[in-house]
Amino acid sequence: MVEKMTCFCKLPAVRMHQALGLVVAGSISVAPADDAKAAETRSYSSPPFTAYQSQYSDALLGSDQYQKPFWNLHDSLGLPKWLSLTLEQRTRYESLAGTFRANSRGGDQQIALQTDVWLEARVNAFRIGTEFLDARALSADSGSGVNNTHANTADFLQAYLAWSEQNWFYSGLGTEVIAGRQTLNFGSRRLVARNAFRNTINSFTGVRIRVLDYDTWQFNAFFTQPVLRLPTASADIIDDRQQFDQEDPRTFFSGGFLEFFNIGYGINSEIYLYHLDEGDSPRNQSRNRRYFTPGTRFYRKPAKAAFDFQFEVIGQFGTVRSSAAAGNGRDLEHAAWSEHFDTGYTFDLPWAPRLAFQYDYASGDQNPNDTQDQRFDPLFGARRFEFGPTGIYGVFSRSNISSPGLLLNFSPLPAVKAFVNHRAFWLAEAADQFTTAGLQDRSGRLGSYLGQQLEVNARWDFNSSLNFEAGYAHLFKGKFLEQAAGAPNPRDSDYFYVQSQFRF
Q1: Residue 4, domain member (yes or no)
Q2: How far apart are alpha carbons 370 and 87 in whole angstroms?
Q3: What is the Cα–Cα distance from 142 to 384, expressed in whole angstroms?
Q4: CATH of the domain at 317
Q5: What is the sign, positive or negative, of the torsion defined by CA atoms of 84, 128, 126, 124?
Q6: What's phi and psi for 387, nearest 5 deg?
Q7: H helix or E strand, kind and range, residue 73
Q8: What CA–CA distance (Å, rounded) separates 29 from 14?
């Protein structure tokens, strides 16, 4: 039994979701008849382990991807259908033993709290909504290196007005326009993402236009200003000082993203171009990044007893200042690139194991003393899903890196998902900076080997309202992390976290 959308669309809702790569398991099965009655049984995607209910419903595709929370405010309060109100709360305890950052010592621990409220009203084709996020870092102190990726106290993540039409002028095209403060999530999420593991979430203010041909392609165009999370000083963040976020008045982020569905043999493709024009402002002394970032991706989604793959290559060119120091006017010519490749196979066995090989590369600066810059900039992307947990850990990022790895996913129970991931890491350029640690050997004599990382993770969905997750990562430090100037104690790093997610 397949439900169709209430419009003159070309595809049923479930098939459209599959074409867009949005549904992990979106099929609908019918149980054997009992007293001449058939019962529907659906299977749903697992939502990210973060505040995400504002993303559950797609104005053009419907809302059958994620299951409604078992306990929910809408039903409990008897709210009308045109009004949505949700509450989500995530609590994470994380511990780090053995630091890796320059001029640091010992370990750290933190309790990261993320509380989110989303409210949206719908009138015909129009929607008006707001999302309020409170992200805090408890138990942090002056030695924790806290910044505005860990905490952003009591602020508006989204505040938007939207219009959508599933069959614009009977053309078979879905069209949507969103104006105001909003989050963005495109493609592989390597360059533009609504953050999941990180405690704070990127947002942008501007206009996004989306056009969807349900069985063929989708195009997104946007023109925005990134939102600055305030305050930025560590002392203010530790003291839970509240200051409303503001758009960066001299920085603009825009682009176009075109997707093609099932171009053959179950393969999907994307092509995109982003433009970042960054200027100094009173609250943001920047490196004046002025980049064009084109890229393309081809992928085939995992399926039982089948091979899957993903290949993405990204270029980047423009100019960037040699530093963010006030008054610095020295521009460097910027030309960088990055690529990702993975291929996997899902076995038709109990626990549905999938074994995959991964490789990531992001260029580094070849000569720190010349007028050229080749270090790849990941813009507003996410990294947890490939390089390990972030939070107070976050060892690796998509910048000056070369990393092969093996990943094993499995599901011992329908409500339990787990993985084991092992990766090795080298600097792409030995004389360039290892950005996340702030370490550099300009001579390059220490070599490029950073070490290896082993990560294990398990998630249990008690029901659609309550989820639990735990993970552990061990960093086997290589020569560079042990001996670079400013490197901390050479002991390996151990990171552990446990978290719960409540949706209501």
Answers
A1: no
A2: 52
A3: 25
A4: 2.40.160.100
A5: positive
A6: -110, 10
A7: helix 73-76
A8: 12
Structural domain boundaries, residue 342: 13-503
Q: What spatial distance separates the first Cα and last Cα of the chain, rounded to whole Å?
A: 29
Tell me which residues of the chain have a pLDDT lower than 70: 1-41
Give the model confidence (pLDDT) of 81-139 as tens digits.
999 999 999 999 999 999 999 999 889 999 999 999 999 999 999 999 999 999 999 98
Please indicate, yes or no, if residue 3 is contained in any of the structural domains.
Answer: no
* Six-digit token string for 239: 């003291």
Nearest in space to 237 (alpha carbons), one of 162, 319, 146, 309: 146
**Strand 372-373 vs strand 401-413: parallel, antiparallel, or unpaired?**
unpaired
Structure tokens that stand for 64 in this block: 């059958």
What ranges make up the beta strands (E) of 144-250?
152-165, 173-182, 204-213, 217-228, 246-247
Give the per-residue pLDDT at 144.
79
Name residue 10's amino acid.
K
Q: What's the rounded Cα separation, in Å, for the pair 85 and 87?
A: 7
**464-476 pLDDT tens trace:** 999 999 999 999 9
The token duo for 154 is 């009591």
Residue 2 lies in a domain: no
Residue in 40, 238, 11 with CA at minimum distance from that of residue 144: 238
The Cα 23–Cα 261 span in angstroms is: 14
Interacting residues of 17 by C-beta distance below 8 A, sequence separation 6+: 23, 26, 61, 62, 64, 65
Strand partners, 291: 276, 318
CA atoms within 13 A on the CB side of 411: 15
In-domain check, residue 6: no
Q: DSSP character for 228?
A: E
CA distance 387 to 457: 13
Hey, what amino acid is at 175? Answer: T
Hey, is 64 helix, strand or coil? coil
Positive or negative, the CA dihedral 82, 71, 157, 276 is: negative
